[in-house]
Amino acid sequence: MNATAHDLGTSRTLWDLLARRADLTPDRPVFLQHRRRLTFGELRDRAERTAAGLCGMGVRPGTVVAWQLPTRIETAVLSFTLARLGAVQSPVIPFYRDREVGFALRESKAEFFAVPGVWRGYDHTEMARRLGAKGIFEAYDGLPDGDPELLPAPPADGTSARWIYWTSGTTSDPKGVLHTDRSLIAGGSCLAHALRLTADDVGSMAFPYAHIAGPDYTVMLLLYGFPAVLFEQFALPDALDAYRTHGVTVAGGSTAFYSMFLAEQRRQPGEKVIPTLRLLAGGGAPKPPEIYDAVVREMGVQLTHGYGMTEVPLITMGAPDDTVENLATTEGRPPRGMEIRIVDGEVLLRGEGVCQGYLDPAQTAEAFDEEGFLRTGDLGFLSGSGHLVLTGRRKDVIIRKGGNISAKEIEDLLHGHPDVGDVAVVGLPDAERGERVCAVVERSPGAGEPTLRALTAYLRAEGLSVHKLPEQLEVVDALPRNETLRKVLKYKLRERYSGTVK
Predict the structure, then answer these.
(1) Domain extents for the chain?
(2) What is the CATH superfamily name and number for domain 401-497?
(3) For 173-213, how does the pLDDT look when each residue is reduced to its tens digit (9 = 90+)?
(4) Keyword rRNA processing, does the record have it (predicted)?
(5) Is the domain 3-182 a CATH 3.40.50.980 member?
(6) Helices 14-24 and 40-57, axial angle in degrees (round to 10)
(7) In sequence order, what are the residues at sequence separation of 6 or more whose Cβ sits closer than 8 angstroms to the Cβ of residue 476?
């Protein structure tokens, strides 16, 4: 990290970080969207005017403001507005509906709720009214404006919990995760340091700004002073024009995004799908080594992958100058200040980038050990070079006849089969064996119909132990995924196939 970025990384609050960057490079762009651009100076100034307007509506330091907004320039303005006021903000993924939104509003005790009005054919304002939300306002009909001279001083404390992020809640109610400005700055600093980016780069946000990756990525922009292209709706090949127009050098999101870029590249072999692109980077889901190899070989760019979660935005990150083996098979190394401890195979974490806990004190007590380490539920080990290798989730271990089987091990091997576009391996209830191993396969475009016999023969040839071989195969057109980082929703597969026996 260069001296300026390192200095900025010591900022106490996100507002302090923005103000210092705006003083350094006020005219450089920070966000690009369609034909619009917003500079660092304009972001600071617009956020201050909007803060004065919200203050006139009754928003004060400590006021809880929920917002459910797509990835637009105005969304970033509102988020920094709330940071300027010292309000507590609760971002909600825009794809969520009554159950998740109602839960977030009730648990956070939100006093205001910013919505986009009608978005993608859905009336968010009507939903907010139906849920009995307080202080509803539509952010895109014009954010309120006021005189910044009337504002109180910005918050000086970066260690108070002023952010409530929500876990996905795929199998139970979401958890409200408490973050501070400093924990978010720590996560973004880890990302910036690992990727070795410069002021000449152009990044991209293809994921919801309301995701924990939103501030993670924005901190990186503030540290190095380069812009990112914002995508309100990400789909390929439609998004390619924006990547090319703005000369994006760094793209990504998660493994599903890598696969989508790779599929586009395969439609025009020998010609770079994004001429300026030099790096794909992301996290949020396991990365099979075969994906790494294919991206580097076919796209001619580097791929670095990391590990994070809502509770800890960035834990480890691969660096472009890591060895090929480490880039392909590990999640990278932790930054200084992130302690990783492996206990009974589980990854435990402690450091400034770790959340303060949950809204529910009982959940906090359960998640942290007596020394303040967060139990992640992920399984893995640290290599001799300090790189983290994840081997699966505690809940993703299949127990067959008393033996533990890693779903990830089987998935990584199956990704190398030419007929397999993507795959999820799950354990299904079985009266005789406890659980049986089921592979759910998404076919490669133009591939033939894979069979259980062919896939198990392939796995045996790859050296997989016989007791780990799948006993059931399901072939689908598309695996079920969430709308944020396109993670596969394994609980839906378990629900769908638990009653089937092959």
Answers:
(1) 3-182, 401-497
(2) ANL, C-terminal domain (3.30.300.30)
(3) 789 999 999 999 999 998 888 899 999 999 999 999 999 99
(4) no
(5) yes
(6) 140
(7) 440, 441, 442
